[in-house]
Write a structure and sequence with these properties.
2 domains, 13 helices, mainly alpha, elongated
Length: 316
């Protein structure tokens, strides 16, 4: 079904140049090298998540005492749980942060987030034409003619020939745009516009994370007063499930924008335990080693008492 019922015109000067500038801005926000790009935020969030889930999974196999309780240090695992949920909720909150006024005023946003990226893309959606998308990636608009020209100027009798990849990318890009615009090959136009409804579909998905964001605002990022926080429960029921669902929504949204709207790719969300940045060591190395010997535990008791005594000196 064609959801692009109307023809849109870009009344501004040099739309292709403007789109190139906007595209570069959007690409940097989504998959740039900056530590706060959306992709880098997701990488950090997902790595912390999978490692916590490995720890949580290990609890299933832990030895138990006579009372049926697992034989693991309660304080350490309490700290792990608290740290995980606080950092994860903050990560989720940052990824859907809102800088609505700046977006509406067409000023540079002060934070990198999915919400701000989507809002800016909606505001500038008139630039998302077939012609502009292909041009910003230096892809030939007419891939059939480009292929014919390549055939005409290539001597296939001299051995294997590699067809320029931009020809294949152009064909795939056209087909992807056809799918989003809702037309068939024979009805293509350079002015075909990606429907803004495709961007609007993410509004509801990101809004479903609002419960977690409100909790962060009242209990983690800010020390809200009782009156200020009374409408927000002080506990998130089924917290792990909601955190993991938020991960899914965030990753699916970022991936769709990168792969289907900006055509800049997104890559994996999580590297394997023996690949990429972890190829020089085993990520599970020494997990079978105990944390402390009896002698070390006594040293830790002494350290705790010494530090407690130090803090007592802070009373004025």
């Amino acid at each position: 079904m064609n959801t692009n019922k109307h023809k849109y015109s870009v009344s501004m000067a040099q739309p292709a140049k403007l789109f190139k500038e906007k595209f570069k801005e959007w690409e940097n926000i989504l998959v740039g090298e900056d530590r706060h790009s959306i992709r880098n935020q997701i990488y950090e969030m997902m790595f912390d998540s999978v490692f916590f889930q490995c720890i949580n999974e290990s609890r299933k196999y832990a030895a138990k005492d006579d009372k049926g309780d697992i034989k693991q240090n309660k304080i350490i695992h309490y700290f792990i749980n608290q740290s995980f949920f606080k950092t994860q909720l903050l990560s989720i909150r940052k990824l859907v942060d809102k800088d609505f006024n700046r977006v509406q005023q067409n000023k540079l946003c002060t934070v990198y987030s999915l919400y701000n990226l989507i809002e800016d893309m909606k505001k500038n959606s008139a630039l998302l034409t077939r012609k502009n998308i292909l041009a910003v990636h230096n892809l030939p608009y007419d891939y059939e003619k480009a292929m014919a020209d390549f055939d005409k100027n290539t001597d296939y009798t001299k051995g294997p020939v590699i067809v320029p990849q931009e020809i294949g990318f152009s064909k795939l890009s056209h087909e992807q745009i056809d799918s989003m615009v809702g037309i068939t090959t024979g009805k293509r136009s350079p002015d075909d516009l990606i429907p803004v409804d495709i961007l609007k579909q993410f509004d509801g998905k990101l809004a479903s994370i609002e419960e977690l964001c409100k909790y962060v605002d009242k209990y983690i990022a800010h020390s809200a007063t009782p009156d200020s926080r009374k409408a927000i429960p002080d506990e998130i029921k089924e917290a792990l499930g909601k955190v993991l669902n938020a991960h899914k929504i965030i990753c699916e949204t970022a991936s769709f924008i990168g792969n289907n709207l900006l055509f800049c790719g997104f890559g994996v969300f999580l590297p394997g335990p023996r690949y990429g940045q972890f190829d020089q060591f085993d990520i599970f190395e020494y997990l079978n080693e105990r944390i402390a010997s009896k002698e070390t535990i006594e040293k830790l008791r002494e350290f705790w008492e010494k530090y407690q005594a130090e803090t007592e000196q802070w009373h004025k």
